[in-house]
């Protein structure tokens, strides 16, 4: 019996491996700006699926849920380009799809890690310069509010209508974040100042750090921690806009125990150095959005330079007192920041928030706008009072990055 002719094996087309695309330096620079609120929008809009790839504690056979509060790909609020391997707009990647090295999310993550690594190093170098060569910064004190205005103007340039609409999506969660921000940190500053017996100037400066709005570095570490970045951006923005109304009364109530506080003058200073620059930046963004986007790669480094000079001026002005007070100030700052992170997370758990929102709340509470605190302390209490804010500006980025790394290895 004749056998059948052998079947020919189907010829498969050779698989084409996409070429590895290097991370764009311009995009990495834009992401780095989230440390100073220059690229908070880019982080918030990073594809949520990028947050879930390569996480060993999560099953690879289930699609990643969308980031709470973030616009989905293809929606009007989504700024990131579509992933080349994704299907229709808004559809998740295939289960277990590997991450492309050139994907927008992986590029954003690399840029974010660069931000939280480079920023503290640059600020620490600036502080060392002020300590070793204080005479070089003699007479620079009056420039500090204007340097802070540059940073706040950059924050306004990144605000967009989707950011503002996101505030109204979950008002009760936003209210919880603002309440925790303006209750936990001021109270902790007051308690730690008493517990450590800080001198009046340092005690007032530590309390003022607690009375400041949320720090903009919280946006980038929330992203690295796979947290609710939309909530982080909303709380940071609103707490900053509310600071002229909230920070001076809190400082009068708590820091006034240590040093006299002119709350009216402080309101004026915050309006001039925070609110007006933010609103001006927002107006420029709305009127010249495309031109502003072209400049986003340069703005982060302007903010780095401004914050670095602020820290150098503050350290130079208090160089004589640093030798005796450095250890106590560092301990106070570590306690203030660490307890703020822990209590912020606990507040989210008590309110039964999901894990991403709880992580965002932890960073929003524990990380402060130390640039504003340094400017106000130097202007109202003297250079020594600004020392806690200068130390805080370095430490909260270090602790935030470490906690974000730990969170990123935990299931959401």
UniProtKB/TrEMBL annotation:
Please give the chief subcellular localization of this protein.
membrane
- Residue ranges annotated as compositionally biased, kind Pro residues, are 62-74
Q: Which UniProt keywords apply?
A: Membrane, Transmembrane, Transmembrane helix
Low complexity compositional bias, start-end: 19-29, 75-106
Highest taxon in the source lineage: Bacteria
Among its keywords, does the record have Transmembrane?
A: yes
Matches recorded under InterPro entries:
BilAc:Na_symport/Acr3 (IPR002657), Bilac:Na_transpt (IPR004710), Na+/solute_symporter_sf (IPR038770)
Topological type in the membrane: Multi-pass membrane protein
Could you tell me which residues belong to the region Disordered?
A: 1-29, 47-108
Localization, per the record, is:
Membrane
Q: Which residues cross the membrane?
A: 114-137, 143-160, 172-192, 198-217, 229-250, 270-288, 295-316, 322-348
Instruction: List the protein's name.
Output: Bile acid:sodium symporter family protein
Organism annotation: Streptomyces zingiberis
């Amino acid at each position: 019996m004749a056998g059948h002719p052998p079947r020919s094996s189907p010829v498969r087309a050779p698989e084409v491996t996409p070429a590895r695309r290097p991370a764009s330096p311009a995009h990495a620079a834009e992401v780095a700006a989230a440390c100073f609120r220059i690229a908070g929008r880019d982080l918030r809009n990073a594809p949520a699926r990028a947050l879930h790839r390569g996480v060993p504690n999560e099953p690879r056979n289930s699609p990643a849920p969308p980031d709470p509060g973030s616009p989905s790909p293809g929606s009007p609020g989504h700024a990131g380009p579509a992933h080349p391997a994704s299907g229709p707009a808004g559809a998740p990647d295939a289960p277990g799809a590997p991450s492309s090295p050139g994907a927008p999310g992986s590029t954003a993550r690399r840029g974010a890690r660069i931000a939280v690594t480079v920023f503290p190093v640059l600020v620490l170098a600036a502080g060392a310069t002020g300590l070793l060569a204080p005479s070089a910064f003699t007479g620079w004190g009056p420039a500090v509010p204007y340097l802070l205005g540059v940073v706040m103007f950059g924050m306004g340039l990144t605000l967009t209508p989707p950011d503002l609409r996101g505030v109204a999506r979950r008002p009760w969660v936003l209210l919880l974040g603002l309440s925790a921000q303006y209750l936990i940190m001021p109270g902790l500053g007051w308690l730690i100042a008493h517990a450590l017996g800080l001198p009046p100037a340092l005690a007032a400066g530590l309390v003022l750090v607690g009375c400041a709005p949320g720090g903009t570095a919280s946006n980038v570490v929330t992203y690295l921690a796979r947290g609710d970045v939309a909530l982080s951006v909303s709380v940071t923005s609103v707490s900053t806009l509310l600071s002229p109304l909230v920070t001076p009364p809190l400082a009068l109530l708590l820091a006034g125990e240590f040093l006299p506080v002119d709350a009216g003058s402080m309101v004026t200073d915050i309006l001039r150095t925070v609110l007006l620059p933010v609103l001006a930046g927002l107006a420029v963004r709305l009127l010249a959005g495309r031109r502003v986007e072209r400049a986003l790669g340069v703005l982060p480094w302007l903010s780095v330079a401004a914050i670095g000079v602020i820290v150098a001026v503050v350290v130079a002005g208090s160089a004589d007192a640093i030798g005796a007070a450095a250890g106590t100030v560092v301990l106070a700052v570590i306690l203030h920041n660490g307890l703020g992170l822990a209590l912020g997370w606990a507040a989210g758990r008590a309110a039964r928030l999901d894990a991403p929102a709880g992580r965002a709340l932890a960073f929003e509470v524990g990380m402060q706008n130390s640039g504003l605190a340094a400017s106000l302390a130097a202007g109202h209490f003297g250079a020594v009072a600004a020392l806690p804010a200068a130390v805080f500006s370095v430490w909260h980025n270090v602790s935030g990055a470490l906690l974000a790394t730990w969170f990123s290895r935990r299931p959401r």
